[in-house]
Write a structure and sequence with these properties.
The structure is a single chain. This protein folds into 2 domains: 74 residues; 201 residues, MetI-like (MetI-like fold), CATH 1.10.3720.10. It is 70% helix and 0% strand.
Length: 284
């Protein structure tokens, strides 16, 4: 029996190691390709170890774009800032609206409360692509094209976050609500002083998920922005790959892809503890 447990332990870890290597290998190839010359990528075999052009390629990607003769010049430092503003705006907006809406559904009694909640929940079946035309028309009529407001506001409602906060608020004992009411605590003070602090791990977990959602947006920014200064980092990668007879400078493209992964990785690593704890508490 002990031997079986040991063998299962090592097989489990072997499977995890193989899974990590399988996922990490394309990322490693992308990093290697971002540190070598154009010829090293075009003429096989592709090297497996980093080259000597790291600083040159990343400087091109951040500040200059592709070298002369390799399609569009797209410095990505501005686009990374656009993506960060969009991702943070969407994340903060979704969390604030979801907290308030979940608070209303759990602690207030009003006509058609359950109907309103299920109407919000049903929107989970309507992704952005389904409502893209009417949403674009509204934003265009409000003259919000090529603006951070137009990029952020149509995406800040979240049925998923509302549902998760609602389920968490429903686990809070009624005795706590009664005690707060007896102490003369107003509804909004109860919300800010009690509900928000005890929801911080759930907020952290959702922050990670929603930040990555906002950072990886492609279709909505593609429709919303015609000004090159308002494009996002995901759009930058696409614009660096030319069509027709142009050539792509692949080291710069790969450096841009690596830079696009850095902020989400930093967010996940820095908030990993809260992310796992928040998911576990949400499950309860």
């Amino acid at each position: 029996m002990v031997e079986k447990k040991k063998s299962g332990y090592w097989l489990t870890h072997l499977g995890l190691i193989l899974g990590v290597l399988f996922i990490f290998f394309p990322v490693w190839l992308t990093f290697v390709a971002s540190t070598v010359t154009q010829d090293a990528i075009i003429y096989p075999p592709l090297p497996m170890l980093p080259g000597t052009e790291f600083f040159e390629n990343y400087a091109n990607a951040l500040f200059r774009g592709s070298p002369e003769g390799y399609g569009a010049k797209v410095p990505v430092i501005k686009m990374m800032m656009n993506s960060a503003i969009m991702a943070i705006g969407i994340t903060v907006g979704k969390i604030i609206i979801s907290l308030l809406s979940a608070f209303a559904f759990v602690y207030f009694r009003f006509p058609f409360r359950n109907l309103c909640f299920w109407l919000i929940f049903i929107t989970l079946m309507l992704p952005v692509e389904v409502r893209i035309v009417p949403t674009y028309e509204v934003v265009a009529n409000l003259n919000l094209l090529n603006s951070y407001t137009g990029l952020i506001f149509p995406l800040i409602a979240s049925a998923t976050a509302t549902f998760l906060f609602r389920q968490f608020f429903m686990t809070i004992p009624d005795e706590m609500v009664e005690a707060a009411r007896m102490d003369g605590c107003s509804p909004m003070r109860f919300f800010f002083d009690i509900l928000v602090p005890i929801s911080k791990t759930n907020i952290a977990a959702l922050f990670v998920i929603l930040f990555i959602f906002g950072w990886n947006q492609y279709l909505w920014p593609l429709l919303m922005t015609t000004d090159p200064d308002m494009r996002t980092i995901v759009m930058a990668i696409d614009s660096m790959i030319p069509t027709g007879d142009d050539y792509a400078h692949w080291p710069t493209v790969m450096a841009t892809a690596m830079l696009a992964m850095v902020p989400p990785v930093i967010v996940v690593i820095s908030m990993q503890k809260f992310f796992v704890k928040g998911l576990l508490e949400s499950d309860k």
